[in-house]
Design brief:
With 335 residues, this protein is of the alpha/beta class. It folds into 2 domains: 48-221 and 265-327, Rossmann fold (3-Layer(aba) Sandwich); 225-261, no CATH class. The chain contains 10 helices and 14 strands. The chain has helices spanning 22-47, 63-76, 93-96, 140-153, 172-180, 195-211, 268-276, 288-296, 300-303, 308-327, and strands spanning 48-55, 81-85, 105-107, 110-112, 114-115, 121-124, 159-165, 186-191, 215-220, 225-230, 236-240, 246-250, 256-261, 280-283. Bound molecules: adenosine-5'-triphosphate and magnesium ion (MG). Residues 56, 59-65, 87, 90, 92, 167-168, 221-222, 284, 286-288, 290-291, 294 line the site of adenosine-5'-triphosphate. Adenosine-5'-triphosphate binds at residues 56, 59-65, 87, 90, 92, 167-168, 221-222, 284, 286-288, 290-291, 294.
Length: 335
């Protein structure tokens, strides 16, 4: 073992003059491996300019959709972007990024990310699965160890942004990531307009305080349903949405129009953000194209780069960028 500092004959190292016991040897080697990994994480941290965590209190609100959407929107704007999918039990980021069934490339002990749509680098726990129908059931310490290893052993190269997608809930994973990766810019909390999801996003905000990672803001997902149509140029229309609510819209010079109808309640994300004094980053429409994209592996932002969802994502990205600009140097201490 040329890179191990541990000598098998070290009269001062162990209790016996014959050198450390097998157990001591093992402990020292593991401490050394940990130290090396920690240094690698510091190094990785320096090469990645911005790191953003995507969290929610509740499952199924669209964290992975938002994580992949943010990553692709940033890539659309010319940034180099990576996405780290921490969800061991149900990872679906590779599918959304067109990388279903892909294996990771390992060279000289370093893991190289797969390249998804728009050149976004993807690392997912899904790449560890033998087959996608068998969920990984790992006990806590093994799972957290695997996450640290993943963070320390990945060769991201230089990145402008790393987006980190988490499993639902305020569990150990975000804590492990926050403790492993230095200088996280902050977290984006995803919520849907329903009350119960809102309550959970409140939990996430309180949780962020204990993590000492700032909240960049709240995104309201599945916020409304956008319909598009064509009529004569520049005419005013009135469209009836759910509950009979009237929406006024004017067609453009080519006669195209689109209008967003509230299918769930709207504005809940904003009121949660206001209540907790954190920024509201914007609304993402309900778009069945996300569901199709999740199934066929072509993300909505890729299939319709100038569609309403891509535009909504670009707005959220702008809001996040301005938060990162204003929150630099504030409260980034990791406990
Ligand atoms: N804005 C949206 N419009 C329509 N469908 C959406 C939208 N956002 C997410 N979905 C769909 O909702 C489902 C759940 O989304 P997603 O997997 O992103 O949620 P999640 O919060 O990551 O879930 P989990 O908690 O299991 O990780 C998916 O089928 C996805 O395609
Ligand atoms: Mg998910």
């Amino acid at each position: 073992m040329s890179d191990s500092p541990v000598s098998t004959h070290d009269p001062k190292g162990g209790e016996s003059t014959d050198g450390p016991s097998a157990q001591q040897q093992k402990q020292m080697e593991s401490a050394y491996a940990n130290m090396k990994r920690k240094m690698a994480m510091q190094e990785i941290g320096k090469k990645i300019k911005h790191k953003i965590m995507v969290l929610s209190g509740k499952g199924g609100v669209g964290k992975s959709t938002v994580s992949t959407g943010l990553a692709l929107s940033l890539a659309q704007q010319g940034h180099t972007v990576g996405i780290l999918d921490i969800d061991i039990t149900g990872p679906n980021v590779p599918k959304m990024m067109g990388l279903d069934g892909k294996r990771l490339h390992v060279e000289q002990g370093r893991i190289h990310p797969a390249q998804g749509h728009l050149g976004v680098k993807v690392i997912s726990m899904a790449f560890l699965l033998e087959d996608e129908d068998t969920p990984v059931v790992w006990r806590g310490p093994i799972k957290l160890g695997a996450i640290q290893q993943f963070i320390g052993d990945v060769e991201w190269g230089e990145l402008d942004y790393l987006v980190i997608d988490f499993p639902p809930g305020t569990s150990d994973e975000p804590l492990t990531v926050a403790q492993s990766l230095p200088d996280i810019d902050g977290m984006v909390i995803v919520t849907t307009p329903q009350d119960v999801a809102l309550l959970d996003s409140r939990k996430s905000i309180t949780f962020s305080e204990s993590l000492k990672v700032p909240v960049l803001g709240v995104v309201e997902n599945m916020s409304g349903y956008t319909i598009s149509g064509t009529t004569s140029p520049e005419v005013s229309l009135e469209i009836a949405g759910p509950g009979g609510k009237k929406h006024k819209v004017t067609s453009d010079k080519d006669g195209n129009f689109n209008v967003t109808l509230d299918i769930f309640k709207q504005g809940g994300g904003k009121s949660t953000a206001n209540e907790f004094g954190v920024p509201f980053l914007g609304e993402l429409p309900f778009d069945p194209g996300f569901v199709r994209g999740g199934d066929d592996g072509v993300h909505r932002i890729v299939s319709e780069p100038e569609g309403a969802s891509a535009i909504a994502f670009a707005k959220v990205v702008e809001a996040i960028k301005s938060q990162i600009g204003t929150s630099e140097g504030q409260g980034l201490e990791i406990i």
